[in-house]
Target: O-methyltransferase
Amino acid sequence: MENSPVPTERPAEADPRFALMDHAMGYLFPAALRAAAALGVADHLGTGPRPVAELAEEVGADPLNLYRTLRLLATRGIFAEDGTGRFALTAAAELLRTDVAGSFRSAILMLTDRTFWLTAGELEEAVRTGTSPFERLFGMPFFDHFARDADTAAVFHVGMAAMSDPENPVIARACDLPPEAVVVDVGGGHGGLLLSVLRDNPASHGVLFEQPHVLREHRLAELGADDRWTLATGDFFTEAPPGDVYLIKRILHDWDDERCVRILRNCREAVYDQGRVLVVDAVITQGNAPDPGKVIDLLMMSSLTGRERTRAEFEALFDQAGWRLTRVIPTGTRLSIVEGVPAT
Ligand SMILES: C[S@@+](CC[C@H](N)C(=O)[O-])C[C@H]1O[C@@H](n2cnc3c(N)ncnc32)[C@H](O)[C@@H]1O
Model:
């Protein structure tokens, strides 16, 4: 009897049920990524490839289960197995190291934190009721939870700073700022965007406007002797410091329309003559193409009260808050700059 030829194609894979199965199990990849990041595996590979048994001992893991986890991550270029049970860093895995320039480990731990993970598991509730399950699960609103203590705060705010680091210099370059402007970064986190803006605009002054516990960890001192900045503690729902330009990055997407109008109106009331607002967020366009903005939109739905918006939706917010939308500036990142000037 002749041997049957080894099949070179897998026609069954054309059955769309296999694709649906893959979508349904997609959550296991971020689970593996979180486990590797949390265990600090990448920190133990800085000197070269290592046998998984050694790695497991150093990070305090079960060798077989660590192997299975890294094997999955290696299918998408995060770590690489050499065929003898040794794993090495790849360019992506390098960024999971804790103390390298551009480390993304804290961003991964933030994005896979239980505050996002558990609420995503309850997305159906948000879809049915129009409200996030966050308060039911965590007993308080999102930003109150992340103000509970220093360790909890660090999960979000250090992670958020790391997530914003790659986009901040690019966005700062795309901001078309008037000379000698007082630039207020509203909810500016640890100040990463303002750092880039001040470096690019030597005649500007920066104001980092944030909650007090977040300002305690700000990074503006990285400018050294250059002291063109001040800190402003406050609540953006009740006030804004005076300035020429209001940067509002990854803020409006956290909130419902009514609260966005309050933030924008406070800036409108405080802005100097000839000033402007630069809202930096994803701008959603129509169509079925993959769009990271539509992914993070569901994070806003499940953990917060906000959403990603279209240009028309930003225009409506601006109108209600006394601003006129002048243009949308693409930045080359996933975010655009939505510019407004005071409506006359
Ligand atoms: C999603 S983060 C964005 C941080 C930063 N703009 C960035 O792009 O990396 C939202 C920020 O809003 C700040 N925030 C939340 N509620 C606030 C309030 N009522 N007043 C001032 N800042 C607030 C948080 O502390 C947090 O840093």
Remarks:
- The mean pLDDT is 96.
- The pocket of S-adenosylmethionine is lined by residues 143, 157, 160, 164, 187-189, 210-211, 214, 235-237, 249-251, 254 (CB under 6 Å).
- The chain is about 45% helix and 15% strand.
- The chain has three domains: 13-101, 110-161, 164-342.
